Amino acid sequence: MKSRIANIVRKTKETEVSISINLDGNGKISAKTSLPFLDHLVISFAKHAMFDLKLNAISKDGIDHHLVEDTAIALGNVIDKALGDRSEITRFGHASIPMDEALAEVSLDLVRRQYHKIELAIVRNQIEKISKEDLEHFFRSLAQSLNICIHVSVKYGENDHHKIESAIKALAVALRNAASQDKKQKGTPSTKGVM
What does pTM read for this prediction? Predict the structure, then answer.
């Protein structure tokens, strides 16, 4: 399998995000966005996906929504780039992850047909100083920029922090499994011959 390393810089009038990733890393992670809970989510995601990740995101306009959105877009873009032609991978991934009383499930397909269904079951308007709609937007933006088919469902829970953590960890584990090398697979894992 080819080396699966990628780097991107996303510059807009609102933010600047630089990110490097090694999909076959050991979980060496650094994330700096100026939003502690966003850092926590990115670090948890990379840790449980076992990616090496270095992410720096700077807000130019002081608007958290733009920082959350562009961080998710850049993260999805760099993973998409690192996956290359997506040959010799398992392709499908599933994970069911508990976080205390909360349970989240993720199923995904690394085919290049973008679809997402995301149900986070958030009740509060804000979690750790990030709005509910921005957290939902983070998951949607990440899913769209990853260019995959993904279903995320928080099955139940009482604590919204736990719901989000179980969802990001389930996403990480499902992606780790789907992106793992399938030694039986020769070429692209599709009857079409392309992903």
Answer: 0.92
